[in-house]
């Protein structure tokens, strides 16, 4: 029987009230009415008994429910999401969108790696109030590897050192120690500007080695995806250099933590030619035949390679020139 706390309180209140009324009635009366009061006494003790019984039942159901909940939660493999991020006008908006998606995902550990020489106050405060389990790291991209203002976005790979720093932290934190089971988990590289459906996290949770799925709005196409025949990946649907070892976007695969730990040298190669960044990490870990297709044999798009427009600051700059710019103390 399901008991509401409210019901117990109402019962408790009624019992107390009856007790009070009874006590008041006794005031100033001679005590020769034992026979008359008997039914009232009986009601009170019956109600007290009921209350005790209900309280016992409540305790019991609490005790049996709690461990079940905890067991089912902790038996899920943790999803470690590695996100490179860098300071720009839209950064807080991107991190807000991302964190509010992640809040809906059980057993998720967010590894946020700032592309900066130190942890910034914006990201530090943001993570602290996020409500998520997280690790906050930072590593600056070398100047000669970083895109400069005006460079086309494809010129140099982005987020490379940051993802590698996330991997380094994981390998250190989850290094096998006798008798622990902290090597169970899944690693996913989630850029801060993409759009993630909650379902993609449930798809990747069962990853044994490397799991794969389609990514929407990427590579100048509606979607790119692994092509699945007889439950196996046989080739890739992509508009550009399908001969690459793994012609997939970063958002289209997840790797088991055990595989990451078993291959301590697997990392992203910042010198890899354009479009080969994902392959540089995956090629030492799996073959195409071993890939585990998810999202209904790669027939569903559950993640989108969205890109946020850079906000124009023309009017802000004009106002600033007149000393009337927005208050710099307001965090955006
Ligand atoms: C595409 C892929 O989706 C990325 O996974 C891949 O890293 C990238 O190309 C590449 O070729 O390097 P794209 O949208 O062009 O992504 O890249 P961004 O979203 O601009 O950057 C990827 C991640 O790196 C983001 O999380 C971003 O915050 C971060 N980043 C970007 C930095 O940490 N530092 C930068 O200077 C720029
Ligand atoms: Mn992006």
Automatic annotation (TrEMBL):
<keyword id="KW-1133">Transmembrane helix</keyword>
<keyword id="KW-0735">Signal-anchor</keyword>
<feature type="signal peptide">
    <location>
        <begin position="1"/>
        <end position="23"/>
    </location>
</feature>
<keyword id="KW-0325">Glycoprotein</keyword>
<feature type="active site" description="Proton donor/acceptor">
    <location>
        <position position="278"/>
    </location>
</feature>
<keyword id="KW-0732">Signal</keyword>
<dbReference type="GO" id="GO:0015018">
    <property type="term" value="F:galactosylgalactosylxylosylprotein 3-beta-glucuronosyltransferase activity"/>
</dbReference>
<dbReference type="GO" id="GO:0046872">
    <property type="term" value="F:metal ion binding"/>
</dbReference>
<feature type="site" description="Interaction with galactose moiety of substrate glycoprotein">
    <location>
        <position position="224"/>
    </location>
</feature>
<comment type="pathway">
    <text>Protein modification; protein glycosylation.</text>
</comment>
<feature type="binding site">
    <location>
        <position position="158"/>
    </location>
    <ligand>
        <name>UDP-alpha-D-glucuronate</name>
    </ligand>
</feature>
<dbReference type="Pfam" id="PF03360">
    <property type="entry name" value="Glyco_transf_43"/>
</dbReference>
<feature type="binding site">
    <location>
        <begin position="84"/>
        <end position="86"/>
    </location>
    <ligand>
        <name>UDP-alpha-D-glucuronate</name>
    </ligand>
</feature>
<feature type="region of interest" description="Disordered">
    <location>
        <begin position="312"/>
        <end position="332"/>
    </location>
</feature>
<dbReference type="GO" id="GO:0005975">
    <property type="term" value="P:carbohydrate metabolic process"/>
</dbReference>
<keyword id="KW-0812">Transmembrane</keyword>
<dbReference type="GO" id="GO:0000139">
    <property type="term" value="C:Golgi membrane"/>
</dbReference>
<keyword id="KW-0479">Metal-binding</keyword>
<dbReference type="InterPro" id="IPR005027">
    <property type="entry name" value="Glyco_trans_43"/>
</dbReference>
<dbReference type="InterPro" id="IPR029044">
    <property type="entry name" value="Nucleotide-diphossugar_trans"/>
</dbReference>
<comment type="similarity">
    <text>Belongs to the glycosyltransferase 43 family.</text>
</comment>
<dbReference type="GO" id="GO:0030198">
    <property type="term" value="P:extracellular matrix organization"/>
</dbReference>
<keyword id="KW-0333">Golgi apparatus</keyword>
<keyword id="KW-0464">Manganese</keyword>
<feature type="binding site">
    <location>
        <position position="115"/>
    </location>
    <ligand>
        <name>UDP-alpha-D-glucuronate</name>
    </ligand>
</feature>
<feature type="binding site">
    <location>
        <begin position="305"/>
        <end position="307"/>
    </location>
    <ligand>
        <name>UDP-alpha-D-glucuronate</name>
    </ligand>
</feature>
<keyword id="KW-0808">Transferase</keyword>
<protein>
    <recommendedName>
        <fullName>Galactosylgalactosylxylosylprotein 3-beta-glucuronosyltransferase</fullName>
        <ecNumber>2.4.1.135</ecNumber>
    </recommendedName>
</protein>
<keyword id="KW-1015">Disulfide bond</keyword>
<dbReference type="GO" id="GO:0051216">
    <property type="term" value="P:cartilage development"/>
</dbReference>
<keyword id="KW-0472">Membrane</keyword>
<feature type="binding site">
    <location>
        <position position="193"/>
    </location>
    <ligand>
        <name>Mn(2+)</name>
    </ligand>
</feature>
<dbReference type="GO" id="GO:0050650">
    <property type="term" value="P:chondroitin sulfate proteoglycan biosynthetic process"/>
</dbReference>
<feature type="binding site">
    <location>
        <position position="163"/>
    </location>
    <ligand>
        <name>UDP-alpha-D-glucuronate</name>
    </ligand>
</feature>
<dbReference type="GO" id="GO:0015012">
    <property type="term" value="P:heparan sulfate proteoglycan biosynthetic process"/>
</dbReference>
<feature type="binding site">
    <location>
        <begin position="191"/>
        <end position="193"/>
    </location>
    <ligand>
        <name>UDP-alpha-D-glucuronate</name>
    </ligand>
</feature>
